[in-house]
């Protein structure tokens, strides 16, 4: 379904995120017919470019990051024809009149702040002062949204002094992933799971976001951030919220976000003994370790975090949530595993094995759902039980339709034009997440905590396995 016509201004329009994600994503939506012909994209940055030069930059970006066999020149030319460029000094006053003159009435005006957070305030203020934004305008901002509670609050205040909360779209691209939304469909669209979704039936939950890449090339940003700020405070927290929240009264932005906020506020502070920090070491073949990638031989920044946390409410009392994420691990796997409790009693003689139902929601790769069930081992050998997965890989189950799903950015950008904030973080959510994260980081700093080294290509430091062993549990394999 096409969105209403828009003028989208991308500040940082020649930057990395714009070239890798935003512009190729917009092109794919244009090709799919979701972006109406009358819409325009206005790239903006400090350097001088003509429209023609900008179109070339974008065309190169699409070829490098977004091209596929469906690209045809007619579509691409039509898309490039929708592009303009205006040189604007975000922190100064140059170029704003030109931008203002270019904006049209009667279409949605959206502004993507694809720049560092230090420029958010300057941009928001100038958009107003120069009459570029109107009351229906939307602004889109990216993480990092602050680096602690104080800075996040300050950013929120700055943005809110020029825009209302309903105009501010804070992106967490994990919320745009297809399976993440499926999580809500599975929980609230089926009768099977929700009755069991509590501490009477669930033993524990594991959330894993494992990456094989290191921080090469992004060391300068990452070293000031670390896995806790880069991944746990936002992406893993969002997954935790969707898994743990109470059913919202309806699938509507504030109803959903109110429930997520309650989860974050109910999180118990994490005990030091339930926290593991790791940093990847050099590879056995001499591949650079984290410190080399980060350009700081004494860095204590973590590239891995594992932790156990609890949600203090009726539904989840006593159910541990284990979270882990790291770089340079064994495989690129993101999944949520809901591990149900053991059966209290087995009627099958000689069957002493622990059988457990496990619901696995796979985010990537091979998006899909797996339900581990216990059945009889085939053959004449009597009632011997085995555990097998009921596997639903979306690509197999849905065929070609599953291939055409928009990627996270495409979906989220289109939601901005639809005025749908369900998959965007509200300001209070972000602040609550920092309020939970800050003491963890402060604790590490106060103790001068040194992350445990781990070998690249493994599941992280041994302490991570110990975290579960101590509770008589184990992580699922990263594969
Ligand atoms: C980003 C982090 O937000 O998410 C990166 O800054 C991380 O460090 C990335 O690599 C992971 O996203 P995805 O979609 O590849 O799982």
Give descriptors for this structure.
single chain; 479 residues; alpha/beta; Rossmann fold; Dihydrodipicolinate Reductase, domain 2; 2 domains; 9-stranded mixed β-sheet; 36% helix; binds 6-O-phosphono-beta-D-glucopyranose
Q: Kindly report the name of the CATH homologous superfamily of the largest domain.
A: Dihydrodipicolinate Reductase, domain 2
Mean pLDDT: 93
Proportion of residues in extended strands:
15-25%
CATH topology of the largest domain: Dihydrodipicolinate Reductase, domain 2
The termini sit apart by 37 Å
Q: What's the quaternary structure here?
A: single chain
Low-pLDDT regions: none
Which small-molecule species are bound to the chains here?
6-O-phosphono-beta-D-glucopyranose
Strand arrangement within the widest β-sheet reads 14-13-12-11-7-10-9-8-15
- Which class do the helix and strand fractions yield? alpha/beta
Characterise the protein shown here.
By secondary structure, this protein is an alpha/beta fold. The protein folds into two domains: 6-142, 3-Layer(aba) Sandwich (Rossmann fold), CATH 3.40.50; 175-469, Dihydrodipicolinate Reductase, domain 2. It contains 16 helices and 15 strands. It has a nine-stranded mixed beta sheet, with helices on both faces. The protein has a six-stranded parallel beta sheet with strand order 3-2-1-4-5-6, sandwiched between helices. α6 links the parallel β5 (138-141) and β6 (168-170). α9 (226-244) packs across α15 (427-447). The radius of gyration is 24 Å and the shape is globular. The model has no long low-confidence stretch (mean pLDDT 93). 6-O-phosphono-beta-D-glucopyranose (BG6) binds at residues 211, 230, 334. 6-O-phosphono-beta-D-glucopyranose binds at residues 211, 230, 334.
